[in-house]
## 1
Amino acid sequence: MESIGCFEECLVETIAVEIGRRQMVQAGVLGLAAFASGCASVVTPAKARVVVVGGGWGGLGAVRVLAAAGTVNVTLVEPNEAFMSCPLSAHYIAGHQPASDFQRSYTRIDQLGVRRLRERVTAIDREKREVVTGTQRLRYDYLILSPGIEYIEDSIQGYADARAQLPVGFRAFEQLAVRQQVDRFLDAGGSFVIGIPKPPYRCPPAPYERAFLIAEQMKRRGTKGKIVLIDANPAPMPAPIAKPILDAMKALYSNQIEYLTDTAISAVDMGRKTLSTALGEVPFTQANLILPMRAPALIRQAGLGERWAAVRLPSFQSQADERIYVIGDAQGTPLPKSGHVAFGAGQQVAGDVLDLVAGKPLPKPGGEVELPLGICWANVTHAEAININVRTTISAAAAPQLRFTVDPAHNARSGAAAMSWGQGMWKAMLG
Ligand SMILES: Cc1cc2nc3c(=O)[nH]c(=O)nc-3n(C[C@H](O)[C@H](O)[C@H](O)COP(=O)(O)OP(=O)(O)OC[C@H]3O[C@@H](n4cnc5c(N)ncnc54)[C@H](O)[C@@H]3O)c2cc1C
């Protein structure tokens, strides 16, 4: 996996190429303006308005390219005051690193001239091309949506009433509450149940990684008890990751982790602290139920899709509205639900929007087209990880083809590469 070693340079280079291309577009526009300024009166057309919803991995990929071009007015709508990474945050959840290692401020985005609105979008008025928040209606010429996921709470009876005691921790900042559960478990022992749904959900290796890093701390601290992984799947999904994950579980944590397969959780009883499954009732001291996921309600309410937003590939343009792009985990293509894919899709879509605004026709895709690359990591200890790369291509009228490259076994090289990948990505997003 030589490509991983040069990850940061490659990323910076990709961004530089992207920005360079955009600056040329801008230079072209400025050149025209200079030429026109010889005339007595020049009417400067208003810049096109691009609204980006969601300041996570996908939204920031788009915002950085749009802001670098300087040819459009960019508004980022994001309710959180700062960014927190889900990737790598298992190191925080299990108590190996502080939360601050995985958080970044939006200061750089503000410095780039992006208007940042710290609110939640509550509706999209497609007819008027307006995004609605609690206090404003924002007009857009192009809308880029990257709002991530919501949990399907009614998939487990009793979950909605117990939400506050059962944080999932698969969205930014929810990790803080899961960390408290982990601390209690590591201190007092007992049974820590992690429930794993059927895919698609974001970052399929993540529940196993979470279990491994908590189990590592159990060993270190001599915690009495066990982690019970209740998996709705017959094995870790997708298939190419199963062997290295199961090998690591057996080799490192056979005394800490009990793995139940093909077992869905149907109900939770917080009074009795039990979970209902086809195998019978499973008692727990702490439970971390990773719920099935879908695109946030906003997508359905705007008529952009059902469980996931329906988009065209390779463009990520909404099937319902050509002025709207949906990227990241909210879109429903077979692409992996990965931050790396989301960021790459954000860059790609922003480039297309800039071309459209500049009046350039988009190239008609012919032959095989490369879609944004997926890079995921499953740490099995604080120092060792399994690297999972997913290359996706698409040809006209054919379904996307996914090709996996997976480390055959966990190793320290991927452990180090994971952390430098994170640093490189956060720098590209917010540095
Ligand atoms: C534990 C874990 C480990 C992971 N590891 C990896 C990994 O190794 N590699 C990898 O590539 N990916 C990994 N992922 C997946 C990665 O986190 C997601 O794929 C990525 O975050 C998707 O980006 P996104 O932009 O779609 O969503 P997000 O990054 O979640 O961003 C969505 C943003 O939208 C905002 N938002 C939501 N609704 C609204 C609204 N109505 N109005 C305004 N803003 C809104 C949210 O506040 C949020 O900031 C991991 C995920 C988890 C949970």
Note: Residues 1-41 have pLDDT under 50 and may be disordered.
## 2
Amino acid sequence: MEYRELGSSGKKVSLLSFGGMRIPRVTVGKAVEVIKKACHLGINYFETAPGYGNSEHKIGVALRDLDRSKVYLSTKSHPGQDQKPEQLRNRLESSLKKLETDYVDFYQIWGLNTEEHYETVFKKGGTFEAVRKAQNEGLIKHIGFTSHGYPAFIQRLMETREFESLTMIYHLYHQRNKGLLDLADKLNMGVMIIAPLSNGFLAHPTPLMEEDFAPYPVRDYALQWLANDKRITSIVSGMKTFKELQNNYDSLNNFLYFDKTKTDIENKAFAKLRDRVGKDFCTECRECLPCPQGINIPELMRLNNLMRGYDAVYYCRDRYRFTGQGGSWYPGVKASHCDDCGDCEPRCPEKLPVVSIIRGLHQELYAGDRKSLATHQISEI
Ligand code: SF4
Ligand code: SF4
């Protein structure tokens, strides 16, 4: 297992990290076994959150038999829930109790997605003061944030220079945050990647996608593609079974940095995708934003690429259901909110008929709204 420096923290973390969001789905005994096995395989970064059901408790139980000094723990506070310093402090103390430890190595402002969240955290008397206080008391060693916001907003958070790491979504088919990697490198921030397999989409690819990446399994390619980028510190994968753990470990342990054969595969696969989508292919350049109705046009166009290019009906339908239903965790509203204002199309360098594409997509994908989401479900978006 490779280990990389996590920004300025002075800590070296394993290339594969353990995401604790899925362990609430298995028994305490099973979760503990999987966590111990992960440690045994060399994983040293374990992340969890108060909103992940009983995940903190299960990690705490596993820790009883592990060397605490060799494990880096990360847990979180969400500004939508903890709006006052005393609420954050209570949340932190509750996390420490459940984790059966007297400090966490990395504490994350979790889901720092909106201006309102920013205000809650950074205003005078805001929750960040409680985070710094806890750090001065030794309850927290290092501070990071996670965000599902737009890249410009994440950049602003990074430029506060209050954080040693950021945690964000980034994978082969979701590259909107790519531009932030150079900035993280420049600011010496650790970069933790979540949803590396796009919530299972790349672990269970469609036949067309499989064909394009052959002879490499898409799962291996997608994880190694991330690992190949040294600006990325670690890949966080939610795991609850030995099989999931072993699959991820096998993909990343002793992986070889990409040579031309590997990059050719990727170039050919993207060229095939582009061919299949044809004249409606969106480059996700984001020039069409802002939409006055709050439609996240590039995200809907990304889904359109995957629908036309890979026949990814199940995945796209699932993602589209979150649109307008996932709160700040999934920015944007459904295409049915379009009022034909005409702002977006003249801004598109590809001259795409944006309105007809997203309306067609809505017709195809809309199958009713989701019920409201519990926090532990939102965390998996
Ligand atoms: S035409 Fe529709 S999608 Fe385009 S900017 Fe206006 S409201 Fe948004
Ligand atoms: S401007 Fe055009 S190509 Fe760029 S993200 Fe918007 S729709 Fe896609």
Note: The mean pLDDT is 93.
